[in-house]
Amino acid sequence: MKSKAHTRVETRSSLLDTLFLSEKRKDLLLLLKKEGPKNSEDIKDVLDFPWKSITPQIKKLTDWGLVLEDHGVYSLSEMGAVIASNVEFFLSTLSVYEDNLDFWSDHDVSPVPFHILNKIGELGHVRIIEQDFSNVFRIPEEIMTNLMNSKRIMSFISIFHPFSLLLLFEYIQKNIEATTIVTEKVLEAFQTEYHSDIPILQTNNPIINKALIEYKKEIKNVFCSKASDLLVYEGDLKPMSMIITDKIFILSLLDKKGRLTTRFLIAFEPQALKWGEELFMYYKERSKSVSSSLSIL
What we know:
Structural class: alpha+beta
Shape: elongated
CATH class of the largest domain: Alpha Beta
CATH architecture of the largest domain: 2-Layer Sandwich
CATH superfamily of the largest domain: Endonuclease Chain A
CATH topology of the largest domain: Endonuclease, Chain A
Radius of gyration: 26 Å
Distance between the termini: 82 Å
Order of helices and strands: HHEHHEEHHHEHEHEHHEEEEHE
Strand order of the largest sheet: 4-10-9-8-5-6-7-11
Number of helices: 12
C-alpha cells in the first residue's frame, strides 16, 4: 500500500509530466491563458496541428481539471489559470537567462534587489549591445533616437563623463521630463568641473575655449533647471548605469570583478519598461535631492 507522502510525490510528478512532456499540452494551456476560451477550430488553426492529435492532449488536461469543456468551447479552470500563469512566468524567466547566458554569467547582478530580480522574466525579449572600445562613449543612433523621442527619462549615473551633463541639458532643451540619480562621486566630479579655475583642457584654440565656457554654463543650467529632478545616491551597492524612458530600458552592469565592460542590455517591451522603472524607483527611494546635499552653486 502506498503512503500518502508517496502518493503526493507521484501526483506532483504526473502533473509536471502532463505540463512539460508535451509541447501541445503546454502550448494549449498558454493559448487559453493568453486568448481565453476557444473552440476546436480556433485551437486547431492557432496550434497548426490536426485535431486528432490534439484531442488526446485536451483529454489529459481536462482529466486533471486544468481545462473545462462546455458545448465544444474550451477554457481554463481556476486551477488551470493559476498554473498557466506560473508556467508562463517560469518559461519567460528561463528564456531571459538562456538567450543571454553570457551576459548574466559574466556580470554582477547584486545591484538588482532579489524581489526585482525574481521577476526578471518580465524583461521579455532583450538585446545585448557590445560597443567597440574605440567607440565606447558613443551612443548608438537607435538608442539616441529613442531617448530624444521620449516624453520622460529616468537615469542613474555612477560613472562620470562630461557627455552625461550634455545629455541632461539636451533633455531640458527638448522639455523632456527628466529624473536623474548620480552617486556622490559623480556629483563631486560635476561640482569640481563647475568650480574649478583650472581649464578642463589647456588650449589656445578660441573655438574650444568658447565651447568649454558654454559647457560650464550648461552645468549650471542642469542644476538650476526646474524641469530636471536631480538626486544623489549615497549607498555602496549600485548599477553602473541605467536609463528608463517611455520607449526604452538600458542597463549596464560591472563584471563580477568590479570592472567596466562594453556590453549593456536594452529592452523595449512594456513589461520591461515597467521592470526597469521599478528598479529605478528602488534607488530613487534611497536617494535625496541634490538641493539638500552640498550645493553646486
